[in-house]
Amino acid sequence: MQLIDTHVHLNFDTFREDLDALQTRWQEAGVIQLIHSCVEPGEFPATRSLADRLGNLSFSVGLHPLDAHKWHANSQVEIRTLAISDPRVVAIGELGLDFYKAENQQQQKSVCQAQLELAVALDLPVIVHCRDAAASLRELMEKINRDKNPARKPIRGVMHCWSGTPEETQWFLDLGFYISFSGIVTFKKAETVKQSARIVPSDRLLIETDCPFLAPIPKRGKRNEPAFVRYVAEELAKLRQCDLETLARQTTENACDLFNLTI
Fold first, then answer.
1. Which residues pair with 180 in a beta bridge?
2. Minimal CA–CA distance to 199: which of 229, 254, 225, 162?
3. Are 184 and 235 in contact (CB under 8 A)?
4. Kind plus residue range of the DSSP H or E element containing 231
């Protein structure tokens, strides 16, 4: 069985001392590829070094909505330059909107739009963080798609660590997006997430850990790691009433299609 963890943050200090052991564990769990998400361009050198070391790591470059205040006049050019500097860059992000306790909603929208437009120009998918902002994000994406040059393709990408309602899930499915579920889907009280997980078409489903955050049951409360993506896959297989091998194969194919991976 082969799995792809489509969202990790291995540059965090919590992984500094035992990264080799982590790699052994995720390989033993069947994880064959990782997508490392950047939360700001300053992470790019460290992420590239991790990819050099690990070998089976692709990555993104972008600015997280909670870091929108770090955007400056040259940020779009900087992200573009980094994105085209290494063939292992497979996406722009993680970008998006996070309106939970936010006082800078307009700034976040502006930063998100600039990155979405860059991704369209580069024909790269986006990795999207969305918290308490689904309606605003949908509106922004629809506007960009309407305003784009007719020769260009619409925005494409993944709603990562998804926790939206089934209605919100359908909004982004209608926009052509993939939906990625994390350890949240294993939580006993996450009924809304479980409902959303049941309605995503098989060819739009992805899995992730978002490590070191949100460790799934039975590891909840511990540091999350790529090997634990298997628990996410097992829960999704149960919710969707399919066997684990089928779900693993489909989500791996989906990740390869979205991120243009060769395995």
1. 206
2. 162
3. no
4. helix 229-240
Whole-angstrom distance, CA of residue 156 vs CA of residue 93 = 12
Q: Residue 191: count other Cβ atoms within 10 Å of its Cβ.
A: 9
Residue 47 Rama label (left phi>0; alpha psi -120 to 50; beta): alpha
Please name which of 100, 106, 183 lies closest in space to residue 134, comparing C-alpha atoms.
Answer: 100
Name the token pair of 109. 């929208």
Please tell me the distance from the alpha carbon of residue 73 to that of residue 134, in angstroms, as a whole number: 27
Share of the chain above pLDDT 90, in %: 95
* Beta strand spans in 99-223 (E): 126-131, 157-159, 178-181, 205-207
Strands (E) located in 31-109: 31-36, 57-61, 89-98
CA dihedral over 53, 45, 79, 87, signed as positive or negative: negative
Residues making up the chain, counted from first to last: 263
> Is the confidence at residue 225, as pLDDT, over 70?
yes
**What is each CA distance from 242 to 41, 86, 113, 249, 253, in whole angstroms?**
39, 38, 38, 12, 16
What's the whole-model pTM score?
0.96
Q: Exposed, middle or buried, 40 (CB in 10 Å: 0-12/13-18/19+)?
A: middle
